[in-house]
């Protein structure tokens, strides 16, 4: 099977694996990432955009009738732990607490649709400062390696979440791919914590972060 063959799970070199995974994902998304002669390796790529009808269809899937009252009702009807995903501002984080959420996912949904959306990493510290003692704050969007998780946890997130971090592996090699991806993250986390001089997650703090 072509997709499976493209991923040599046991091959060495993480960046080589990432390139393969990107190629596989691009293949699945019908995007041509063939290298051109200009710009050297991996600098310039010819990209075929999704045709307009698909983008139009996506827009019709976004329902603007859903509002905070609906979220509050869902939260109270559910009666258990309830996390709202897609929070990117302190105002929305406070509102999520007000309607009874027990968790929020600070997320730009992977930043795949709205060009220019803020990165969750940039918003995290402010949000944690204001609501971090009242809800579990989960960081998501763009997490692809151990250091990304360490940055999010250092900024006060209780946990991290991700989509593509396991989806590419799933598409490429099913369960074994996801297990391999998770083991890579675990190894990276453990090694990077040692390099940072941290023995446990609770050792992580904003002291580990410097914004430019
Ligand atoms: C193929 C795909 C489909 C997705 N569909 C949805 C969706 O229907 N609703 C949603 O809120 N987020 C959706 N997401 C976003 C993910 O739930 C998640 O927020 C995002 O993947 C996190 O960013 P990351 O991929 O950089 O980890 C989708 C992501 C991918 C890759």
Brief digest:
This protein has 212 residues and is α/β, with parallel strands linked by helices. It has a four-stranded parallel beta sheet with strand order 1-2-3-4, covered by helices on one side. Helices cover 49% and strands 8% of the residues.
Task: Give descriptors for this structure.
212 residues, alpha/beta, 2 domains, 49% helix, disordered N terminus
Structure write-up:
There is one protein chain. The protein is of the alpha/beta class and 212 residues long. It folds into 2 domains: 2-59; 65-208, TIM Barrel (Alpha-Beta Barrel), CATH 3.20.20.70. It is 49% helix and 8% strand. The protein has helices at residues 2-6, 14-28, 52-60, 68-78, 90-98, 120-131, 146-154, 164-196, and strands at 83-87, 103-107, 136-140, 159-161. The protein has a 4-stranded parallel β-sheet with strand order 1-2-3-4, with helices on one face. Helix 6 links the parallel strand 2 and strand 3 (136-140). It is globular and about 45 Å long. Bound molecules: flavin mononucleotide.
